[in-house]
C-alpha cells in the first residue's frame, strides 16, 4: 500500500515539473514566431518603402485639406475669406482688371508693401503721364486760382445785387398792392354793373317788343327777332348819342377851365385857340 502511494507521488511530481516547463516552451515558441514575423515585415517594408512614403504624403495632404475645409464654418469663398483676414484676395491675376494700374495701386494702399506684393513705383506717374496731365489741366482749367477766386467773388456780388434789387422791387409793389386791389375791385364792379345794365336793357327791349305786338309771342319767332334787332339798333344809337353829348360836355368844361386859366395868366388866346390846343 505504501508502494502505491509512493508511485503516485512520483508521478505527480513529474507532471508538475512538466507543467512548469510548458510556459517556457510556449513563450519561446511565441518569441520565435514574433521575431520571424517582424523580420519578414521589415524586409517587406524595406522593399516597398518609397511607394508607401509617397502614398502617406498624399493621404496626409488630403487629410489636411479636408480638415481645413471642415474648419471653415463661414462658407465664404477663398477671396472673401482672405479679405476678411486682411489678406490679398487672390494670389495671382484672375482677370484683366487685376493687371490695371488702378487695381494695383488700390491693393498697395490697402494691404501695404508686403501684403500686396506690388512694386511701389507704380504709384508715381510716368513722364508721359505727367505731360498729359499738365496739358489736360492747361486746357481744362486755363485760368489761375486767383482769377477764379476773383470771378467767383464778382459773381456772388452780382447775385447779391440782383437779390437786393428784386427785394426792393417787391417792396415797392407791395406798397402799391392796396391801390391795385382797389382798382381791380373797381374794374370788376364796373364790369358787373355793365353786365347788369346790358341784361336790364335786354329785358327792357324784350318787354317793349312784347308790348308792341300786344300779345304773348315766342321769343324764337322771326317777327320777334326782327323787332328785337330793330329795338337794339335804336337803343345803340341812343347810347352812342348819350356818350357823344357826355363827351361834349366834358370838352366844354375843359375849355372853360382852360379859358379861365388863360385869363388868370393874362394870356390873349381865344377859346378857339384853346380848343385847337386841346385837340393837339
Automatic annotation (TrEMBL):
Q: Where is this region: Disordered?
A: 229-280
Localization, per the record, is: Mitochondrion; Nucleus
Ranges of compositional bias, category Basic and acidic residues: 229-267
Q: What is the name of the protein in this document?
A: Large ribosomal subunit protein mL64
Which organism encodes this protein? Aedes albopictus
Q: Name one Pfam family in it.
A: CR6_interact
Q: Which PANTHER family match?
A: GROWTH ARREST AND DNA DAMAGE-INDUCIBLE PROTEINS-INTERACTING PROTEIN 1 GADD45GIP1, LARGE RIBOSOMAL SUBUNIT PROTEIN ML64
| Membership in a protein family | Belongs to the mitochondrion-specific ribosomal protein mL64 family.
Q: What does this protein do?
A: Acts as a negative regulator of G1 to S cell cycle phase progression by inhibiting cyclin-dependent kinases. Inhibitory effects are additive with GADD45 proteins but also occur in the absence of GADD45 proteins. Acts as a repressor of the orphan nuclear receptor NR4A1 by inhibiting AB domain-mediated transcriptional activity. May be involved in the hormone-mediated regulation of NR4A1 transcriptional activity. May play a role in mitochondrial protein synthesis.
Q: Say if the entry is tagged with keyword Nucleus.
A: yes
Which keywords does the record carry?
Answer: Cell cycle, Coiled coil, Mitochondrion, Nucleus, Ribonucleoprotein, Ribosomal protein
Q: Does the keyword Cell cycle apply?
A: yes
Amino acid at each position: 500500500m505504501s508502494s502505491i502511494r509512493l508511485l503516485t507521488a512520483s508521478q505527480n511530481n513529474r507532471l508538475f515539473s512538466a507543467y512548469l516547463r510548458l510556459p517556457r516552451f510556449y513563450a519561446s515558441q511565441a518569441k520565435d514566431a514574433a521575431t520571424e514575423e517582424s523580420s519578414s515585415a521589415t524586409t517587406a517594408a524595406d522593399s516597398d518603402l518609397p511607394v508607401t512614403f509617397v502614398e502617406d504624403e498624399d493621404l496626409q495632404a488630403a487629410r489636411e485639406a479636408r480638415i481645413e475645409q471642415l474648419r471653415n464654418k463661414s462658407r465664404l469663398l477663398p477671396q472673401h475669406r482672405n479679405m476678411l483676414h486682411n489678406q490679398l484676395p487672390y494670389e495671382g491675376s484672375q482677370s484683366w482688371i487685376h493687371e490695371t494700374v488702378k487695381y494695383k495701386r488700390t491693393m498697395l494702399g490697402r494691404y501695404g508693401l508686403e501684403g500686396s506684393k506690388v512694386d511701389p513705383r507704380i504709384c508715381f506717374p510716368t513722364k508721359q503721364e505727367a505731360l498729359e496731365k499738365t496739358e489736360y489741366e492747361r486746357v481744362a482749367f486755363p485760368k489761375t486760382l486767383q482769377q477764379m477766386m476773383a470771378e467767383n467773388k464778382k459773381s456772388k456780388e452780382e447775385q447779391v445785387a440782383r437779390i437786393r434789387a428784386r427785394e426792393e422791387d417787391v417792396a415797392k409793389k407791395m406798397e402799391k398792392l392796396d391801390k391795385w386791389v382797389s382798382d381791380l375791385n373797381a374794374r370788376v364792379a364796373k364790369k358787373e354793373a355793365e353786365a347788369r345794365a346790358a341784361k336790364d336793357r335786354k329785358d327792357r327791349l324784350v318787354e317793349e317788343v312784347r308790348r308792341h305786338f300786344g300779345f304773348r309771342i315766342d321769343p324764337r319767332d322771326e317777327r320777334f327777332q326782327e323787332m328785337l334787332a330793330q329795338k337794339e339798333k335804336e337803343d345803340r344809337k341812343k347810347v352812342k348819342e348819350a356818350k357823344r353829348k357826355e363827351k361834349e360836355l366834358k370838352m366844354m368844361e375843359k375849355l372853360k377851365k382852360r379859358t379861365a386859366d388863360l385869363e388868370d395868366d393874362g394870356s390873349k388866346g381865344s377859346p378857339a385857340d384853346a380848343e385847337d390846343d386841346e385837340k393837339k
